[in-house]
Amino acid sequence: MMRGESLPRAAAPFFGFARLLRHHAFPIAPEQVTGFMKAVTLLGPRSMNDIREAALATLAPPPDRHGEFDAHFRAYFYNDTKPSIEGEKDDETRIKDDRGTREEEDQTVRKEEGGELSSALEQLSTRDFQRDDDRLAAFRRKLSSALPARRSFRTVRTPSRGKLDLRRSLREIVSADGDVPSPLLRRRQTVPRKLLLLIDVSGSMKLHTADYLKLAHAAVQGADRAEIFTFGTRLTRITSALRIRDRDQALARAAAQVDDWDGGTRMGPTLLAFLSVPRFSSFARGAAVVILSDALERGDHAELETAIRRLSARAFRLSLATPLAGDPRFRPATAALRAILPDLDDLIDGSSLTSLTDFILSLARPAPTASTIWKRVS
């Protein structure tokens, strides 16, 4: 794609809008961007609707993403702080980020209907946490070394089994007046992958939320790159709060930041809102992602299916931990679970800290996919 710095000043906003869409995974080729700016030039334009029509005709967003396209158009050109992802204006999923300032980004989403224990009605409340025993101490100590690893682009010196560090080897030869010392070798570092926990704090998960937050605190304390979000009717990043070493203080800070305890749930729209923020979706890229939820989605599960498919494409491993799986009679029989099962790497028991910690510590070990396991069980 052309470089924005070389464009005329008047063309820069249109180039910027195309770049914004590319950041949100819209398939846009450089030729389409050029065509968009040429179309705007030919149209005049006389109104913002002309610009929108030119963008629709040349950037060609998929029909199922027209609502999202319109939301980004309003946010970019009108500075609309409450864009609608699906073109509706009734229900809202608010995004709350805890990075220093408590700034919020609002995302409006479509109303969901579904599981009997799930509700789209928002209830705002706060929660206090009591100190639990120290059963998570071992998990915290083992986590960093137990996470899946990847090869970094950074390199370190190694005495053997590495690639020749030609630049430093030549320096050694020059400093030794032409003598040939032992060659210097380097190898790529191996670093743990990111861990991303998405915690459902809706009313149907009320009995498990406290344990999940304790698990999240141990994860942040034990791993260098762990990210924690809560979701119900809103999306809240609580990673900074959980970096406080004292668990009581950390959970109290997290409790103060989350506004939608024990309320309704909009799982699909909330996950789409997470993916619509580039900085947030980057947390999932190449990460081990664990969703702690019963996945009782209300109504049409199309948005949940879309969100899980996109999240699976970004993640190294995508897992759903549901407390419902603690019942031996549990089967992924709901329409939503059947729809997302092919995109899940794991569908596991999330009813106890024991099962969750054991599973997270085993993420580096390969396992059959969720659909393979549950087909055997069924």
UniProtKB/TrEMBL annotation:
<dbReference type="InterPro" id="IPR036465">
    <property type="entry name" value="vWFA_dom_sf"/>
</dbReference>
<protein>
    <submittedName>
        <fullName>VWA containing CoxE family protein</fullName>
    </submittedName>
</protein>
<dbReference type="Pfam" id="PF05762">
    <property type="entry name" value="VWA_CoxE"/>
</dbReference>
<feature type="compositionally biased region" description="Basic and acidic residues">
    <location>
        <begin position="83"/>
        <end position="114"/>
    </location>
</feature>
<dbReference type="InterPro" id="IPR011195">
    <property type="entry name" value="UCP010256"/>
</dbReference>
<feature type="region of interest" description="Disordered">
    <location>
        <begin position="83"/>
        <end position="124"/>
    </location>
</feature>
<dbReference type="InterPro" id="IPR008912">
    <property type="entry name" value="Uncharacterised_CoxE"/>
</dbReference>
